[in-house]
Amino acid sequence: MKIVSSFYKFMIAVGLLAAVSCDSLDEINDNPNGISPSSANPNLLLPAVMRQTALNINSLGYGILAGTVQHTQHDGWFTGHNQYEWGLQDWNGWYDILRNNRFLMERAEATGLDFHKGIALTMKSFAFGTITDLWGDAPYTMALRGDQPGVENEFPAYDSQEIIYDGIINDLKAAAQIFSSGRNTGIIPQYDLYFGGNAQRWHKFANSLLLRYYMRLQAKKPDFARAGIEEVFRTGVFLTAADEDVTMNFIGASQADSWPSATDFDAGSGFRRIKPTTTLINRMLEIEDPRVPIWFRPVHCRWVEDPTLTTAIDPFIRENGVILNGRVSFSDADYVQRIAAGNVYTRHYNPALLGRQLDTGRYVGIPPALENPSAHNLNPTEGQQLENQHVSQLSDRYRGRSGGILRARIISAAEVHFILAEAAQRGWNVGNAQTHYNNAVRLSLETWGVGSSYSEYIARPGVAYNGSLAQIIEQKWIASWTTASESWFDFRRTGLPALVPGEAAAEPVLPVRFTYGNNEINFNANNVNAAIGRLEVTFAAGRGANNQWSKPWLIQGTGKPW
């Protein structure tokens, strides 16, 4: 997808102006300068729905859920990201998308544009799927009716997760049926930010989401999940190539349409505080994963173990082996410039005198949920906004605004084949587990530009298929980099990978849901309290039932993840 021309930016702006909340439609009905709800072209509504969906899911997968599944840690402003100290979480951003999407659906039906209806069904399924994945029970059948009279519309009841997942699956089946015709009547390709109006690509997307949501139900409704996955597999219509990954590029014209950690907009502190977690990077280093240098940068200054040193540590850093008297560190910008010029920075230490080991690796992560992560590996410049020269940052690619690997990733061919590998490993009729596993690994490497390393990588101990579910989920967890929400949902369902919180975590186990937010508690109390009453309260009962460790229907009675 290319969104680089001024015309395309204009299209997005028009879409954003057009895709107003359904609750506000009365305000523009008589506005000669507005777009009339009775005559709006459905194409105008596509960019807002698709763009905001991609931004929201990227924010989760690169943000707080990357901390949850121990992909990243923050060494500044870290309690939520690292330690699971989450506040109440409102879902307004997702229901805003759904209100705009309802308008899209209405206009598609009114104009007889089935292709647009299929898109609306798919995007509705994705948004409601994310809501129930994150929170549990939620308004579904009675949602989005606030513009209609009646208390039941103003204060919508919550549906069970089971009803929501069933509805999602039915809508995706209906969308797939529409797309199977191959017709895309009425589409203006520039408005379709994902596929440029390609019906086959939408068909593969809808079926791939079906695979995702059927597998979500594996532990709770195994027969239903198996039958659904086998049915989709028989069609052969799902993502099979890395260039079919469903992604959205960033324009990079402003902070709102750029990669979240772009240093042009926050002087770099947001980028600098994101570090790899030892859980992820150490495992990748053990299996010599070729994605390491794509995602992470070597430490600016490497520790060197030196038993001849007469002090516990060098008081200052060394440049090309020569001590720089008075210099304990450089700024991040200076380090980047000096290292690019060919300089090498080290600091020596004597473990016998120091009384402990430091991490001397070229790539170094931060353990999960430390009390003071900015001090890790004997950082001489602790603080919320300062860099840690002895811990890796993300690769410089993630400083940028747009381009290259900087994409909002919605679902990938690798994920699809990991799902099929798991299904086959469970004995379902979807082909060979090893074939799907190998394909999934290959597709992920291709996605990240290191496909040439596949043959060597897949033969390595720890990577070569051993028939276990744990291995499939581990590789899927690695491959979900920047899409960590899927790894969280897999962990919740399977208990894999066997992630253990760190020393300062809020509780000794990972959370399993978002808490219902203030808007619902303040304005829809009866219905949200009924939903809270259906949660299984765990050992964290002292926090009240509406906490991130209370189990929703999806995992109740499964014994997972803990």
Describe this structure in words.
The radius of gyration is 25 Å and the shape is globular. The N terminus is likely disordered. By secondary structure, it is mostly helical. The strands form 3 sheets. It has a 4-stranded mixed sheet. Strand 5 and strand 6 form a beta hairpin. The relative contact order is 0.13. It is built from 23 helices and 8 strands. 43% of the residues lie in helices and 5% in strands. Among the domains are: 193 residues, Alpha Horseshoe (Serine Threonine Protein Phosphatase 5, Tetratricopeptide repeat), CATH 1.25.40; 125 residues, no CATH class.
Key words describing this protein structure:
562 residues, 4-stranded mixed sheet, Serine Threonine Protein Phosphatase 5, Tetratricopeptide repeat, 23 helices, two-stranded antiparallel ribbon, single chain, globular, mainly alpha, disordered N terminus
